[in-house]
Amino acid sequence: MTISETTVREFETALLALDRLTATRLLTAPEGGESPMRRVEQLVAPTLDRIGRAWEYGQVALSQVYMSGRICEDLVDALLPSGSAIRKDQPKMAVAVLEDYHLLGKRMVYAVLRASGYELLDYGRQDVEGLARRVAEQGVEILLLSALMLPSALRVARVRAALDRLGCPVRIVVGGAPFRFDPQLWREMGADAMGVNASDAVRIVAALTGDSS
Amino acid sequence: MIESKSSSLHRVLTTLGHQEPDRVPLFLLLTLHGAKELGLSIRDYFARADYVVEGQLRLRARYQHDCLYPFFYAALEMEAWGGEVVFVEDGPPSSGEPGIRRWEQIDGLTPPEVERTPGLRRALQAIAGLKAQVGEETPIIGVVMSPFSLPVMQLGFDRYIELLYEQPARFERLMQVNEEFCVAWANAQMRAGATAICYFDPVSSPTIIPPECYRRTGFRVAQRTLARIQGPTATHFASRHCLAIVADVAQTGTAAVGVSVEEDLAQLKAACRGRLTLLGHLNGIAMRRWTLAEAETAVKTAIAQAGRGGGFILADNHGEIPWQVRDDVLQAIADAARRWGRYPLDWVDDAD
Q1: At what angle are helices A104-115 and A62-79 packed, to 10 degrees?
Q2: Which CATH architecture has domain B8-340?
Q3: What is the predicted ipTM?
Q4: Which residues from B are below 8 Å from A66, CB to CB?
Q5: Which domain holds residue A175?
Q6: CATH classification at residue A43
Q7: Could you point out which of B78, B100, B133, B284 has its C-alpha 20 to 30 Å from the C-alpha of A161?
């Protein structure tokens, strides 16, 4: 059984209207008896993806993307508690911002990935060397970096160099305004992928991990 | 090529009146490059008003563009609110940890006094120093963060969005306090010699909040605030979109609007014609890697799309050109603006 397109649309409408009650009902109501993880995969992830793409096309605002992600994160936390065995089996991931206090993008990526059933570490604001050391020590395999300011985006190349020196084959995924305004920048900085919106993180992580769900 | 005798101020006022001046005015919104001109670090450069005066005058002499831009950095205002400023070697200083950590702090907040903040006093000295040098020849652009966008630094962006949606009374209280500060800061800059105030309001953009939310919030804040600023204003969305709200923006009393390279300039021109002057929309981030030929092409394309009939000032789309943009690219932009911006724009096909 799959969740109907009508339910996905209703869920999207509820999220954009910040209607937590309806969103909760749609996510938790039985419709075919899917497992919680299946409901997350069939309802939450595609809806957040649609909202992310709608932002990309100027059809919804960032505030709606952020609030939708937060609502879904709360709902999914209730369905799949943190550390739950029924969350996705995945490589170790972390998200961070480099030398900058603009943390919204990071918060959105964190919310969208957790709302899609992934677990990840939130490193907050980091400097280059501190981040590289932490990634190496904790065996992080996918590092997601969010940047609003150009200097912060340019630090990604230094992170890549520091991780190379430490012999860490980490895959780096970047996102944020500088990468949107200069589509060549992510490759120049040595990243492995670039997300145009927060929900792209889910698609990219799935591609990097071979998760076809 | 013979340079026209029209003053920069006259050129800008003519285009703001939706008439064609001698050529398309060019605003190179350079802040950090003043430090490069003086061979100083960014931190040292902004520590003294006379450095900023000298930096701005040198940049104007070098590129012959049409404004002086003694904007220090957005986080300067956070100093007034007791916040921390974080310097980096290759970009604008930014604000540190948000000062408002508990919602209740908003209830007791009072607007800081401009005169008691050393950083703001330095910025006023820079404006006065420039005014003494250029008089009425060149527009001096002062800058304020809008009361509606300042909370991104006061609270952090995520908590501000939550406040906006979930605590309307406390949001209104914060707007009242911020409006008082913004008006005082803008008028202090006008008294110091600014010609106009650039009102940075990125949160009002449809990129950030839905237009219907803007009409209930940022629009009303802008109407109240701009009405009390004793001088002309331009509203800047710092590279975010504005096409969906330009009719509302025109009703806030602002004269110009900073537009994003992500939107169609010709479409913006059609929507704003006769109501708002467009300021933009060169891609400052991509500018970092432009060749000289690409710089000329970008200038030519923008002028072709928006130059006719006046109501257009060529500038970058963010309101600040990154430190990493090379001097030869800036020179190529300035040269191309003079070459292709001369009115009448006979070279522009009607199809453009």
Answers
A1: 40
A2: Alpha-Beta Barrel (3.20)
A3: 0.93
A4: 158, 161
A5: 93-209
A6: 1.10.1240
A7: B284
A107: chain B residues, CB-CB within 8 Å: 158
Residue A84 lies in a domain: no
Q: Give Cα separations from A151 to A179, A187, B149 (angstroms).
A: 12, 16, 22
Return the DSSP state at B233. Answer: E
B91: closest chain A residue by CA: A151
pLDDT digits (tens, 9 = 90+) for B100-156: 999 999 999 999 999 999 999 999 999 999 999 999 999 999 999 999 999 999 999
* CA distance to partner chain A, nearest, from residue B262 (Å): 8
Residues 6 or more apart from A104 whose CB is under 8 A from it?
A62, A66, A148, B156, B157, B158, B161
> Chain B: which residues have CB within 8 Å of chain A?
86, 88, 90-92, 94-98, 156-158, 161-162, 164-165, 206-210, 213, 239, 241, 244, 261, 283-286, 288-289, 322-324
Better-scored residue on pLDDT, A3 or B316: B316
Q: What tokens appear for B151 in the block?
A: 């909370």
Assess whether A150 and A192 both reside in one domain.
yes
- A88 occurs within a structural domain: no
Instruction: From A79, A107, A137, give the residue that closes a domain.
Output: A79
Dig out the tokens for B300 from the structure. Answer: 């030519």
Task: Indicate whether A97 and A72 sit together in one domain.
Answer: no
Q: Are B207 and A61 within 8 A, CB to CB?
A: yes
Q: How far is A104 from chain B (nearest CA, A)?
A: 6
Residues 6+ apart with CB under 8 A from B32: B42, B45, B91, B92, B320, B322, B323
Would A86 be classed as within a structural domain? Answer: no
CB distance A149–B239 less than 8 Å?
no
Q: Are residues A118 and A195 in the same domain?
A: yes
Residue range A17-31, pLDDT digits in tens: 999 999 999 998 765
| DSSP-assigned letter for residue B343 | S
Residue A134 forms part of a structural domain:
yes
Query: Could you count the other beta carbons within 10 Å of the beta carbon of residue B162?
Result: 17
How confident is the model over B323-335, as a mean pLDDT? Answer: 98
Element (H, E) at B257: strand B256-258
Nearest 5 degrees, angle CA B108-CA B112-CA B114?
A: 170
Domain boundary among A13, A45, A79: A79
Residue A159, domain CATH: 3.40.50.280
Overall domain count for chain A:
2
Same domain flag for A185 and A97:
yes
Mutate to test the interface with A, among B31, B42, B78, B94 (most CBs of A within 10 A): B94
